Amino acid sequence: MLLYETPRTQVAKAALTLFETGLVVNTSGNVSTKVEEHVVITPSGRPYNEMEPRDIVVLDLEGNIIDGDLLSSSETPLHLAIYAAYPQTTAIVHTHSIHATAVSTLLSELPAIHYQIADLGGPVPVAPYRTLGTSALADIVTKTLRNRNAALMQNHGAVTIGNTIEQALTRCITLEWLSEVFLQSHQNGKPSIIDNNELENVRRRQQDLIEARQKYLNKRND
Ligand SMILES: [Zn+2]
């Protein structure tokens, strides 16, 4: 029996989803989840389409390898710093997806060009460039994520966080889509922007919809 078999399987599955949706190429990008006092994370230098649960590495919160045959992701310091700073976060996805990376070279913040940005916590800030895999990069990206569920990393890529792997993955796909919408709009003129008051209305409306869905399901299951 593999230690943390279920989260390792979920992380390997998320890695495959990233590969299949074209959000990662070769061995770029990484996925992790926090389980109790451990972090379950994709390995370094292993192609996503070949990844299996036993390839996923188990670390303690200081980054020591607890179980696994491979070295953990080169961005392990980034994952550990985010978990340390935001205890409610239990999943992280990092990619070099094309449109998000393109936006990271152009802006200091991706503006609210579509209401779906509300799920990312509002306009998405771009963390200034630092060398990959360093604690300097981990620090600046962690700070940039304050009050946000997503950040862009200048000349590097994107990172999203969530309470589940599924949520972090969905936000990663949303961020890539928003980035593509921004680039398309920007190419054709000056995009209009949704203001903060309206984003708050969107948040409330989305919460109402979640509650209405839950109420309906509960009623059906009675
Ligand atoms: Zn990276």
Explain how this protein is built:
With 222 residues, the protein is α+β, with helices and mostly antiparallel strands. It has two domains: 5-191, Class II aldolase/adducin N-terminal domain (L-fuculose-1-phosphate Aldolase), CATH 3.40.225; 194-222. Helix content is 41%, strand content 17%. It has helices spanning 5-20, 76-85, 98-104, 135-144, 165-187, 196-221; strands spanning 30-35, 38-41, 57-60, 65-67, 91-95, 109-110, 124-127, 150-153, 157-162. A nine-stranded mixed β-sheet has the order 4-3-2-1-5-9-8-7-6, with helices on both faces. Helix 2 (76-85) crosses helix 4 and helix 3 (98-104) packs across helix 5. The longest helix has 26 residues, at 196-221. It is globular. The termini are far apart. The model has no long low-confidence stretch (mean pLDDT 95). The site of zinc ion has 6 residues, from loops.
